[in-house]
């Protein structure tokens, strides 16, 4: 059946990102109707504030003016995530965007660095990453603002107020013909023959038919789960945290916003700090088996950089994913599709890649089994690789100071992760599989940051003379220092480029 009417259920970050992206289809298909249904009474989760670099491309593809958007969402720039107390209490490392150095004669930089380290070079690998050094000195300059033929461009993402971002995209989508309908969905009707969703019924009785539905209704999964009974793959045995309490605060010390999200491990979970222009977003993710709500709240309040700016928002979740992300004529995106912890800011990213796949695969001639299968297969691989990366943060720890850390340190981990760790330990090898999101630098930074050190390096790193290698890495270090020295401070840059009104 041809698709003439798409209904998006839910107006959180996922719903409005989808609406904004699909609205561009209307330019070539004027008769296509796109309707978004949301309920102000139900509201949104609205704590998704930290993003990763592909999100910059998402906004670019929509031809959104970056400075205007950042001003509207109180945004700041982000070049990585700082992990505190994960491998051990008192230990800290940055997982940077971008790469350590660059490939030398086809060999990844960290192998070359390891060889030089063995030969007595004392410099930490972080000295060869532009984003780490920029974060360290609080300096920032967007990529198009400078040119360097020696180094890859600065990789960055944003910290955003997700509620404001959804509002921003709503204006964008409505201006391009998306129709918003306020109200609560009370019922979902299935077609008796195909089992497809035929229509939704609003609480005022209005029946809204659709040919294709995008379920962005959040954890409840109104269409994908409640109507279609798709089923959920529970990953609590690998990612046991199942609660969060969120609490924004003013940045009272007047300090400039950091260029990174901070993830500080506590005794039964961890706390995020996301610096926006006007405030910090904070939250404590924890495991209810090991900590109660009151204690989690008290730990969060005790570790804020200012007075709480709102009432605490308690959230419950089960980590995992839907057994199918695309089922019949419904695609689930955002929290309706699944949830892994916000440790590496991957949720909004998965909305983004879900939209990319949807617009590539969807044909307005109608849905087919092949489309459904391809979408599900590709998305499942993506979730799996991200899951392994998140599990690594918990399993690669020496912490034994609480029952929670004893549990995650000794839990069984997926075989795919076991293999990755074993290969890295033996000679620093990291294979990026299935076009996975996290690159070698990401894996290396977390493994080394949490105490997994390679015993050797790629034999090809021994092929070049040491002096030549030293010359190469000296050049990288010098270029990074020079660039960082000549960048403005992050705070100055924000106030000139995209200061919020
Ligand atoms: P929601 O925000 O829950 O929106 C659901 C929508 O559906 C709402 O508009 C609601 O009104 C509507 N709805 C529901 N039921 C009905 C109904 N019956 N009728 C009508 N409308 C209905 N992601 C990141 O990328 N970075 C982060 O730092 C990050 N931090 C997070 C921290 C926590 C603790 C949590 C839980 C999530 C975090 N996320 C993060 C994830 C991020 O918040 C979500 O992925 C993102 O906001 C998308 O949410 P959503 O739109 O799917 O769902």
Explain what this protein looks like in three dimensions:
The protein is an alpha+beta fold. Helices cover 35% and strands 18% of the residues. It is built from 15 helices and 21 strands. The longest helix is centred in the C-terminal third of the chain and has 27 residues, at 369-395. The chain is globular and about 75 Å long. The structure holds flavin-adenine dinucleotide. Flavin-adenine dinucleotide (FAD) is lined by residues 10-15, 37-39, 42-51, 162, 184-185, 216-218, 220, 222, 244, 246, 283, 315, 317, 334-336, 342, 345, 347-348. L-tryptophan binds at residue 344. One of its GO terms (molecular function) is nucleotide binding. This is Tryptophan 7-halogenase. The active site is at residue 78.
Describe the secondary structure blueprint for this structure.
Blueprint: E1 5-9, H1 13-23, E2 33-38, H2 54-61, H3 66-72, E3 76-78, E4 80-84, E5 92-96, H4 109-118, H5 130-137, E6 157-159, H6 162-175, E7 179-182, E8 185-190, E9 197-202, E10 207-209, E11 212-215, H7 222-227, E12 232-234, E13 243-246, E14 260-266, E15 269-275, E16 280-286, H8 293-302, E17 313-316, E18 320-322, E19 326-327, E20 330-332, E21 338-339, H9 347-361, H10 369-395, H11 403-410, H12 415-427, H13 440-449, H14 466-485, H15 490-497
Parallel strand pairs: 1-2, 1-11, 2-7, 4-14, 11-20
Antiparallel strand pairs: 3-6, 4-5, 8-9, 9-10, 12-18, 13-16, 13-17, 14-15, 15-16, 18-21, 19-20
The protein binds flavin-adenine dinucleotide.
Flavin-adenine dinucleotide is lined by residues 10-15, 37-39, 42-51, 162, 184-185, 216-218, 220, 222, 244, 246, 283, 315, 317, 334-336, 342, 345, 347-348.
């Amino acid at each position: 059946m041809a698709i003439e009417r798409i209904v998006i259920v839910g107006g959180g970050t996922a719903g409005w990102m989808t609406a904004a992206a699909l609205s561009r289809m209307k330019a070539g298909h004027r008769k296509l109707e796109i309707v978004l249904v949301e309920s102000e009474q139900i509201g949104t989760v609205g704590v998704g504030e930290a993003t990763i670099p592909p999100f910059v491309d998402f906004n670019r593809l929509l031809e959104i003016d970056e400075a205007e958007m950042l001003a509207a969402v109180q945004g700041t720039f982000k070049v990585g995530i700082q992990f505190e107390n994960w491998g051990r209490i008192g230990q800290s490392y940055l997982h940077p965007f971008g790469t350590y150095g660059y490939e030398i004669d086809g060999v990844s930089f960290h192998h070359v660095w390891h060889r030089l380290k063995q030969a007595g070079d004392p410099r930490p690998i972080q000295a060869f990453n532009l984003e780490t050094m920029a974060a360290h000195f609080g300096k920032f300059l967007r990529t198009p603002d400078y040119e360097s033929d020696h180094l890859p461009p600065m990789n960055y993402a944003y910290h955003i107020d997700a509620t404001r971002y959804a509002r921003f995209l709503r204006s964008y989508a409505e201006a391009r013909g998306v129709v918003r309908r306020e109200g609560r969905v009370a019922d979902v009707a299935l077609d008796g023959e195909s089992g497809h969703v035929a229509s939704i019924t609003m609480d005022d009785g209005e029946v809204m038919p659709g040919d294709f539905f995008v379920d962005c209704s959040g954890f409840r999964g109104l269409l994908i789960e409640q109507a279609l009974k798709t089923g959920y793959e529970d990953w609590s045995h690998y990612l046991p945290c199942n609660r969060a309490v969120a609490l924004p605060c003013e940045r009272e010390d007047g300090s400039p916003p950091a260029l990174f999200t901070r993830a500080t491990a506590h005794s039964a979970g961890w706390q995020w700090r996301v610096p926006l222009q006007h405030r910090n977003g904070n939250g404590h993710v924890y495991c209810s088996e090991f900590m109660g709500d009151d204690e989690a709240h008290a730990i969060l309040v005790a570790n804020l950089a200012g007075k709480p700016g709102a009432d605490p928002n308690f959230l419950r979740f089960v980590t995992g994913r839907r057994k199918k992300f695309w089922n019949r004529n419904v695609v689930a995106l955002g929290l309706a599709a699944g949830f892994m912890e916000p440790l590496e800011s991957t949720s909004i990213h998965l909305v983004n890649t879900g939209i990319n796949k949807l617009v590539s695969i969807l044909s307005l001639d109608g849905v087919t089994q092949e489309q459904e299968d391809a979408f599900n297969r590709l998305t499942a691989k993506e979730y799996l690789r991200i899951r392994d990366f998140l599990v690594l943060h918990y399993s690669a720890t020496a912490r034994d100071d609480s029952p929670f850390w004893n549990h995650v340190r000794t839990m069984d981990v997926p075989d795919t992760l076991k293999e990755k760790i074993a290969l890295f330990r033996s000679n620093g090898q990291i294979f990026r599989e299935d076009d996975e999101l996290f690159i070698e630098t990401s894996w290396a930074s977390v493994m080394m940051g949490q105490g997994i050190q390679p015993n050797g390096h790629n034999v090809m790193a021994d092929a070049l003379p040491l002096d030549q290698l030293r010359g190469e890495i000296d050049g990288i270090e010098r270029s990074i220092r020079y660039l960082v020295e000549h960048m403005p401070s992050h705070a100055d840059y924000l106030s000139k480029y995209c200061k919020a009104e």
